[in-house]
TrEMBL record:
It comes from Porites evermanni. Residues 1-69 form the VWFA domain. InterPro entries: ECM_Assembly_Org (IPR050525), VWF_A (IPR002035), vWFA_dom_sf (IPR036465). This is VWFA domain-containing protein. PROSITE patterns: VWFA (PS50234). Coiled coil: none annotated.
């Protein structure tokens, strides 16, 4: 979970994200707030990005988010 604004700029997440993906790690980014850098979240997780206006909203939607994470991870395994 992030506001999508890495201290020092997006370049700091590009290579680590590529490295993790090359190892087979599946990532999902949850952007929280009204001023999220969706481009940066895309570097991290591709199309697996969920936007939320607040942490309270994340908690309200937690069950659905967990289901999405589980289904996405299991779909890749099977």
């Amino acid at each position: 979970m992030t506001d999508g604004k890495t201290y020092g700029g997006s370049d700091k997440v590009k290579q680590p994200s590529k490295d993790l993906k090359s190892l087979g790690v599946h990532m999902m980014a949850i952007g929280v707030g009204d001023d999220v850098d969706t481009r940066e979240l895309g570097y991290i997780a591709g199309k697996n990005v969920i936007l939320s206006s607040s942490f309270d909203e994340v908690l309200t939607k937690a069950d659905r988010l967990i289901d999405q994470l589980t289904l996405g991870a299991c779909r890749e395994v099977y």
